[in-house]
Amino acid sequence: MDFATVSEKIATGRLGGALSRLLPATPVWEREWDLCCILDGCRLDLMREVAAAGHDALPGPEGVDSLWSVGSQSAEWMDRTFGPEHRAEMARTAYVTGNPFSSQSCEHILVTSDEVLPLSGDDFGVFHEAWRDEWVDDEISTIPPESLTDAAIAVWREREALDIDRVLVHYMQPHAPFRSRPGWFFGSADIEHWGQFTDGDGEDEDIELADLSPEEREALEALAEAEAADDSDDSMNDPWLRVRDGDLSFEAVWGAYRDNLEWVLDDVTRLLENCDGRVAMTSDHGNGIGEFGVWSHPPGTPVPAVRRVPWVVREGRDRRTCEPGLPDAIGEGATGSDESATDDDAIDSRLEALGYK
């Protein structure tokens, strides 16, 4: 067994989990902000690289500080960010999220408490699960940043009427899938487990090969071959694991990763132009690219590449360059999202097909 394998097993095993809990992690509630943007899966060095290139949403690289995240995976981050000890802050906060882990109990993630997730409208001053209505299945399956920014701006402008003091907006970029490389991602995203994919709509029905186009048949055969060759639980659509396995080059994945960060930062620029107040940018976790043998972002790992995330603060000024309305569920006076907007039976069938239930 080589060193990378040994160190990976330590970092993601029981010892790593114990060390992870000892890190000097900082909940976002302990920092000063009016609006806080969670840029899902953003490495610190990536943020500094884009800052050095001069993106409008960022200061120079010297202005990109850091903190230790409370988790190394989204559900773990939610579990520790929204625990009972933070209820007072949460009651005065609007949480606008594009991350579907908000709806899951996550029993399969052994480092979560099973007491926090799933989240509900009772947990926050305003709770808006934007992914329920704004998810798109186009070239890639994701929730683009625009709808989250619109909701955050509208909520912030109505903060007095909504009786909240802060807005926490959870964007899904720069996390994969990457807009510049749609061909890397096969099938429809299982939006209940971000980054996991299915080869269809999750229905238990036989596929008639005669009904498939040549392109669909070729894609299905490629998936079957990949699944037959893969004896692990790794997702074939995780670009970091594909770099590890030699299927994709690091340079290509890093370039697509950076483009996804620029995608969301372009919209954060719009947030800065339409909200008065202190706007923070950080992440729930980074991504390992082989440090201590760790790739991607497994839960319960103490590896700095995954746990040390950016912290940037800018002053926003509302120039009224856009006028988004409140999302319907909030505009109607609801603090929670309309859960009926997502078919729970369809969700369960997808999770069962993926081995989660």
Description:
With 357 residues, this protein is of the alpha/beta class. It has one domain: Alkaline Phosphatase, subunit A, CATH 3.40.720. The longest helix is centred in the last third of the chain and has 23 residues. A hairpin with a 3-residue loop joins strand 5 and strand 6. Helix 1 packs across helix 2 and helix 7 runs parallel beside helix 11. The protein has 14 helices and 13 strands. The strands form 4 sheets. The chain has a 7-stranded mixed β-sheet with strand order 2-13-10-1-7-3-4.
CATH architecture: 3-Layer(aba) Sandwich
Count of discrete domains: 1
The name CATH uses for the topology is Alkaline Phosphatase, subunit A
* Name of the CATH class: Alpha Beta
Report the strand count: 13
Shape: globular
- Estimate the helix proportion, in percent: 25-40%
Tell me the Rg in angstroms.
20 Å
> Could you give the order of the helices and strands?
HHEHEHHEEHEEHHEEEHHHEEEHEHH
Category from helices, strands and their pairing: alpha/beta
* Spatial ordering of strands, largest sheet: 2-13-10-1-7-3-4
Mean pLDDT: 83
% residues in beta strands: 5-15%
The biggest beta sheet reads:
7 strands, mixed
Weakly predicted, low-confidence segments: 192-206, 230-234, 334-338, 345-357
What distance lies between the first and last C-alpha atoms, to the nearest angstrom? 32 Å
SS summary, helix count = 14
